[in-house]
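Module 6 notes. Inverse folding takes a fixed backbone as the condition and produces residue identities as the prediction. Think of it as a translation problem where the source language is geometry and the target language is the twenty amino acids. Below is one complete input and output pair. Work through it position by position during the lab.
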């Protein structure tokens, strides 16, 4: 009988490199590696070569940056998706795309298994495996890191024994994942939430205190919620994100330091660097401030939270997502215009905004002569708006001092 095949999500790092011989030894499968470029700044062809040198039967590498930006990041940007209000979801957005590509490759190569290098404590295992189960339920999943119980020194030893090239490990003490939408940093010193973020954790951003003393302005053009230009020059999403990562990073913009609630119930200290995500989301929100009605804007913040949760929780390929997206996309039809953002020592401040279909009316807002607001109308409005509260005060709040008794929700031994 022909040997089975496994498609392995291969980053070329220590763990996934060790996985090549380990899976062969423990599962007797041919290894097909898959590496993709999400804008993490690695040479994926060199990684592909390394996979072959490490014993993979076949090795694939593809540049999926455009798909990542168009089909994964743009929807999240339109939704202003920030997990727990802060994390722009770079890693969480990348996983379903990688998993999708692996399912496609499994089909193409006739693989029976898929494998990833995630641990048993994180969100990424969930994102990968939920996607596999959704798109290709016949594939069996191998998660070596969950099984092999090797420490880092043991993994290094295993690599040496199997002649796996491991870069002269200058012992990166952090676990890092990065793509065009941001850089996620975990582990090491930062596991103690009392520790200040270790300077070595950051690679894309200058420390705000060391950022230039002169501010820099960027102007972002949007067409129905989609960034289309930077400083007056049209560009693709990939180009705009790349450029903003550089400019923003130089000014120390996009450092995020959080204690985050993982799906599997653990609280985790995480650092992120996401200059372009932070700038683009801020700018996009500023344009929505001009173009969405109060009700739409309020409702959209609820949608943003749901949206961020579903992405974080690995439910990208769900009908709920499609339904929410339909609302988000529809909400973007007047979000066209431009926003000027001032970058200065770690901050990205909105400095100006302008929209084709702005709901902002100078003649209504102004206190100058051009005032077009009917001041008389305010009198009746206030009377009606305040009527229920005034009535309540007369009958309740000012009339009696009824006390609240809160029932004890945990029974005590003397409550029989
Ligand atoms: N906590 C983030 C998330 O779940 C980032 C995970 C980063 N992964 C890593 N291997 N460092 O999306």
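Target side of the pair, the amino acids:
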């Amino acid at each position: 009988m022909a040997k089975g095949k496994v498609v392995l999500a291969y980053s070329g790092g220590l763990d996934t490199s060790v996985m090549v011989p380990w899976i062969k030894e423990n599962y007797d499968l041919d290894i097909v590696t898959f590496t993709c470029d999400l804008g993490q700044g690695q040479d994926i062809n060199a990684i592909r070569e390394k996979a072959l040198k490490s014993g993979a039967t076949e090795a694939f590498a593809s540049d999926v940056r455009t798909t990542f930006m168009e089909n994964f990041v743009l929807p999240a940007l339109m939704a202003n998706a920030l997990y727990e209000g802060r994390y722009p979801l770079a890693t969480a957005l990348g996983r379903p795309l990688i998993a999708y590509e692996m399912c496609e490759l499994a089909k193409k190569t006739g693989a029976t298994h898929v494998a990833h290098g995630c641990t048993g404590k994180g969100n990424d295992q969930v994102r990968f495996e939920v996607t596999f189960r959704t798109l290709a339920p016949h594939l069996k999943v191998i998660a070596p890191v969950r099984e092999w119980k090797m420490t880092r020194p043991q993994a290094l030893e295993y690599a040496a024994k199997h002649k796996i090239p491991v870069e002269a490990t200058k012992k990166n003490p952090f676990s890092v994942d990065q793509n065009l939408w941001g850089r996620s940093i975990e582990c090491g010193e930062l596991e103690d939430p009392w520790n200040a973020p270790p300077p070595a954790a950051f690679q894309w951003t200058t420390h705000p205190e060391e950022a230039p003393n002169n501010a820099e302005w960027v102007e972002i053009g949007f067409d129905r919620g989609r960034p289309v230009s930077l400083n007056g020059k049209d560009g693709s999403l990939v180009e705009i994100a790349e450029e903003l990562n550089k400019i923003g990073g130089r000014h120390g913009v996009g450092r995020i330091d959080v204690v985050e609630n993982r799906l599997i119930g653990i609280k985790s200290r995480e650092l992120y660097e996401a200059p372009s995500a932070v700038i683009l989301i801020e700018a996009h929100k500023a344009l929505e401030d001009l173009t969405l009605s109060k009700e739409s804007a309020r409702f959209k913040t609820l949608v943003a939270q749901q949206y961020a949760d579903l992405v974080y929780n690995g439910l990208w390929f769900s009908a709920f997502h499609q339904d929410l997206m339909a609302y988000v996309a529809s909400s973007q039809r007047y979000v066209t215009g431009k926003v000027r953002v001032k970058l200065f020592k770690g901050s990205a401040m909105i400095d100006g905004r302008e929209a084709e279909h702005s709901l902002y009316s100078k003649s209504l807002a102004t206190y100058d002569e051009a005032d077009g607001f009917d001041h008389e109308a305010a009198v009746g409005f206030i009377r009606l708006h305040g009527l229920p509260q005034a009535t309540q005060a007369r009958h309740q709040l000012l009339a009696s001092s009824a006390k609240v008794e809160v029932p004890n929700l945990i029974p005590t031994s003397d409550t029989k």
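Reference fact for the lab report: Residues 377-397 form the longest helix (21 residues).
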